[in-house]
């Protein structure tokens, strides 16, 4: 129980740190974002005094109130799900825009990450098992893929598979001209068709890391005494590989999920921009290009919360898989 | 591209000829990495001196490679090769700057916290872990979009801010085991000052890890900067691989089929990153001898005395 409590407390602290960072960043920065925003807003229509007040609260230029009170107000509004008003999509709420784009990103990154993790672990297991084989020697090549910027790989794939061969669509999340969003097969197949290339990009560029980590752990695990014992007992090699070596070797990869997930998410955000995928990444790009600070901060917050949530989930699962972590804590 | 394949090929060659000592593949990796990284660095240092102005426009727009332009021209007739040289210089500068800053930060948070212990350690490792789980690039994007005029140093600082945490965690783990070694205890008992123990007794043992973390930080920084510049948030007025890609994307290089515009910068990032990874592999193998990439034949040789007695027919083929 103590272990779970510790984990949850840690993630609450991390969440608080992210919120605080989000609150103080605009206050530390030079210039006055509210004036920029108001001038943008007034181009689209009259700005009410309450909008200005809301912006000031969010961006912290309202000097009437002490910073601490502003901070509490900010935390309160975040917990009420009120992230302010978007400038770009005025007068839509930031929460609504994020609500529209988040499912796309979670679907794409979620599926791609799971595929990449499973395939990477399996290949890494084989490479570590047959050390020095062609698969093992192939690993430096996959790490080259890892050093490839996600968005550049996306550009290249888009150029060859989308533009030259025209096997995949060039942009979008589904065919907006022929398909209506809904639970129909036409829509779902269109989504899969449009998501294939972005997903392939993410898998190709993140798989190397999983493979390398698993391969190295596999090699270390294979030199343990219990592997020799298993060999001595005359167990089937496949059983030794999967049930004895791989099961233990996979643990650091699982616990290292935290670090990798942040990296994968960062990479995917830019990938989405290349594919004009209707997810969080494209929304972030729009926000950045039009100085939409409210949307930008909201997206940063949502990305952080999602990553923290995924990590908490993995951590809790990890404790189930590996009882030693519970004891140590 | 071809050069990076050298490492696997070299070790495959060694596998065929087991007579040659097992050390070969290891040094081949290191050499390949050093040569490629060195060549790219040299290109970045010397290239801009010879290749002229990357901003100069000409009438020869979107020309394919050849015809006096080794890598063709952009939409406004700028020489891609000259841009590439300047971009290499910019990206490497960022990489080195961030690498240096990140390593100092991670050494501070990792080593000092772990050595002092107690509340300092708790606080430091909490900060480290929080920084580790907060996704880096979105944070960098948010920070840099607030600053209108960004210098190279600012971008480097922001990237360093988000990239030190991983290294700090590794350093902390190693320092924790080092601080309880006998020779450290001995120097503590003999009344040496804390900073001297840290600098003279502990730091030298962490050198290989620091080196590998530094290499990681450089890769991370170059990738991060490329992503940032690609969205248009890079250092203003500086050529980097990312800003080249930004201009290529905005100049519709993809739709116009101008592959010579967007392929080279990305390829250089990939090749440079792969070269650094190769160097990192070699460092890892020095730290952790278990990882050494022994060839099948070599392994079989030192396994024979034991496996002969132990393995059942049939297992040997798959297990070694």
Automatic annotation (TrEMBL), chain A:
<feature type="domain" description="ABC transmembrane type-1">
    <location>
        <begin position="102"/>
        <end position="314"/>
    </location>
</feature>
<feature type="transmembrane region" description="Helical">
    <location>
        <begin position="138"/>
        <end position="162"/>
    </location>
</feature>
<dbReference type="GO" id="GO:0005886">
    <property type="term" value="C:plasma membrane"/>
</dbReference>
<keyword id="KW-1133">Transmembrane helix</keyword>
<dbReference type="InterPro" id="IPR035906">
    <property type="entry name" value="MetI-like_sf"/>
</dbReference>
<feature type="transmembrane region" description="Helical">
    <location>
        <begin position="249"/>
        <end position="275"/>
    </location>
</feature>
<dbReference type="GO" id="GO:0055085">
    <property type="term" value="P:transmembrane transport"/>
</dbReference>
<keyword id="KW-0813">Transport</keyword>
<comment type="similarity">
    <text>Belongs to the binding-protein-dependent transport system permease family.</text>
</comment>
<feature type="transmembrane region" description="Helical">
    <location>
        <begin position="104"/>
        <end position="126"/>
    </location>
</feature>
<feature type="transmembrane region" description="Helical">
    <location>
        <begin position="295"/>
        <end position="321"/>
    </location>
</feature>
<feature type="transmembrane region" description="Helical">
    <location>
        <begin position="182"/>
        <end position="212"/>
    </location>
</feature>
<dbReference type="InterPro" id="IPR000515">
    <property type="entry name" value="MetI-like"/>
</dbReference>
<dbReference type="Pfam" id="PF00528">
    <property type="entry name" value="BPD_transp_1"/>
</dbReference>
<protein>
    <submittedName>
        <fullName>Peptide ABC transporter permease</fullName>
    </submittedName>
</protein>
<keyword id="KW-0812">Transmembrane</keyword>
<keyword id="KW-0472">Membrane</keyword>
<feature type="transmembrane region" description="Helical">
    <location>
        <begin position="7"/>
        <end position="25"/>
    </location>
</feature>
From TrEMBL, chain B:
<protein>
    <submittedName>
        <fullName>ABC transporter permease</fullName>
    </submittedName>
</protein>
<comment type="similarity">
    <text>Belongs to the binding-protein-dependent transport system permease family.</text>
</comment>
<dbReference type="InterPro" id="IPR050366">
    <property type="entry name" value="BP-dependent_transpt_permease"/>
</dbReference>
<feature type="transmembrane region" description="Helical">
    <location>
        <begin position="215"/>
        <end position="239"/>
    </location>
</feature>
<feature type="transmembrane region" description="Helical">
    <location>
        <begin position="152"/>
        <end position="171"/>
    </location>
</feature>
<dbReference type="GO" id="GO:0071916">
    <property type="term" value="F:dipeptide transmembrane transporter activity"/>
</dbReference>
<dbReference type="InterPro" id="IPR000515">
    <property type="entry name" value="MetI-like"/>
</dbReference>
<dbReference type="InterPro" id="IPR035906">
    <property type="entry name" value="MetI-like_sf"/>
</dbReference>
<keyword id="KW-0472">Membrane</keyword>
<feature type="transmembrane region" description="Helical">
    <location>
        <begin position="30"/>
        <end position="51"/>
    </location>
</feature>
<dbReference type="GO" id="GO:0005886">
    <property type="term" value="C:plasma membrane"/>
</dbReference>
<feature type="transmembrane region" description="Helical">
    <location>
        <begin position="94"/>
        <end position="117"/>
    </location>
</feature>
<feature type="transmembrane region" description="Helical">
    <location>
        <begin position="124"/>
        <end position="146"/>
    </location>
</feature>
<feature type="transmembrane region" description="Helical">
    <location>
        <begin position="259"/>
        <end position="283"/>
    </location>
</feature>
<keyword id="KW-0812">Transmembrane</keyword>
<dbReference type="Pfam" id="PF00528">
    <property type="entry name" value="BPD_transp_1"/>
</dbReference>
<keyword id="KW-1003">Cell membrane</keyword>
<keyword id="KW-1133">Transmembrane helix</keyword>
<keyword id="KW-0813">Transport</keyword>
<feature type="region of interest" description="Disordered">
    <location>
        <begin position="1"/>
        <end position="24"/>
    </location>
</feature>
<feature type="domain" description="ABC transmembrane type-1">
    <location>
        <begin position="92"/>
        <end position="280"/>
    </location>
</feature>
């Amino acid at each position: 129980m103590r272990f779970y409590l510790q984990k949850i407390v840690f993630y609450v602290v991390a969440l608080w740190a992210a919120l605080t960072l989000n609150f103080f960043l605009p206050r530390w920065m030079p210039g006055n974002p509210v004036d920029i925003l108001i001038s943008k807003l007034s181009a689209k229509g009259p700005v009410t005094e309450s909008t200005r007040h809301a912006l000031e609260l969010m961006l912290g230029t309202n000097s009437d109130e002490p910073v601490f009170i502003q901070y509490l107000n900010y935390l309160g509004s975040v917990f009420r799900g009120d992230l302010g008003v978007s400038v770009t999509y005025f007068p839509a709420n930031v929460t609504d825009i994020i609500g529209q784009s988040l499912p796309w990103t979670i679907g794409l990154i979620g599926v791609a990450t799971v595929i990449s993790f499973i395939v990477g672990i399996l290949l890494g297991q084989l490479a570590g098992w047959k050390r020095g084989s062609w698969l093992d020697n192939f690993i430096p090549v996959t790490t080259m893929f890892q050093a490839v910027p996600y968005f550049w790989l996306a550009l290249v794939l888009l150029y060859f598979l989308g533009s030259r061969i025209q096997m995949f669509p060039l942009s979008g999340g589904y065919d907006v001209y022929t398909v209506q969003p809904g639970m129909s097969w036409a829509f779902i197949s269109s989504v899969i068709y449009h998501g294939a290339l972005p997903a392939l990009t993410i898998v190709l560029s993140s798989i190397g890391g999983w493979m390398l980590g698993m391969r190295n752990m596999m090699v270390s695990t294979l030199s343990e005494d219990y592997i020799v014992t298993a060999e001595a007992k005359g167990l089937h090699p496949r059983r030794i590989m999967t049930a004895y070596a791989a099961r233990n070797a996979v643990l650091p990869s699982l616990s290292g999920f935290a670090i990798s997930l942040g990296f994968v998410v960062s990479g995917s955000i830019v990938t989405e921009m290349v594919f004009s995928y209707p997810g969080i990444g494209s929304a972030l790009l729009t926000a950045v290009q039009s100085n939409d600070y409210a949307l930008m901060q909201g997206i940063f917050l949502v990305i952080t919360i999602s990553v923290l949530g995924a990590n908490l989930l993995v951590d809790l699962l990890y404790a189930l898989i590996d009882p030693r972590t519970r004891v140590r804590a | 591209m071809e050069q990076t394949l050298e490492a696997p090929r070299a070790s495959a060659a060694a596998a065929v000829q087991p007579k040659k000592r097992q050390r070969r593949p290891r040094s081949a990796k290191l050499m390949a990495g050093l040569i490629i990284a060195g060549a790219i660095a040299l290109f970045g240092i010397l290239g801009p001196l010879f290749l002229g102005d990357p901003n100069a426009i000409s009438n020869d727009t979107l020309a394919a490679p050849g015809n006096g332009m080794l890598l063709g021209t952009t939409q406004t007739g700028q020489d891609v090769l000259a841009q590439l040289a300047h971009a290499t210089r910019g990206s490497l500068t960022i990489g080195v700057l961030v690498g240096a800053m990140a390593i100092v930060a991670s050494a501070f948070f990792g080593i000092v916290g772990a050595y002092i212990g107690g509340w300092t350690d708790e606080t430091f490792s909490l900060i480290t872990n929080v920084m580790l789980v907060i996704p880096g690039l979105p944070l960098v994007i948010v920070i840099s979009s607030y600053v209108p005029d960004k210098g190279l140093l600012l971008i480097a600082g922001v990237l360093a801010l988000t990239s030190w945490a991983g290294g700090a965690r590794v350093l902390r783990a190693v320092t924790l085991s080092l601080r309880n070694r006998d020779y450290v205890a001995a120097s503590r008992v003999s009344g040496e000052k804390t900073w001297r123990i840290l600098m003279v007794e502990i730091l030298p043992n962490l050198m290989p890890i620091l080196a590998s973390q530094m290499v990681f930080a450089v890769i991370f920084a170059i990738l991060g900067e490329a992503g940032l510049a690609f969205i248009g948030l890079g250092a203003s007025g500086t050529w980097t691989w990312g800003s080249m890609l930004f201009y290529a994307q905005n100049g519709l290089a993809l739709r116009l089929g101008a592959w010579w515009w967007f392929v080279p910068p990305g390829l250089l990032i990939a090749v440079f990153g792969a070269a650094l990874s190769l160097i990192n592999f070699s460092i890892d193998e020095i730290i952790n001898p278990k990882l050494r990439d022994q060839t099948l034949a070599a392994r079989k040789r030192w396994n024979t005395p034991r496996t002969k007695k132990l393995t059942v027919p049939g297992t040997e083929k798959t297990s070694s």
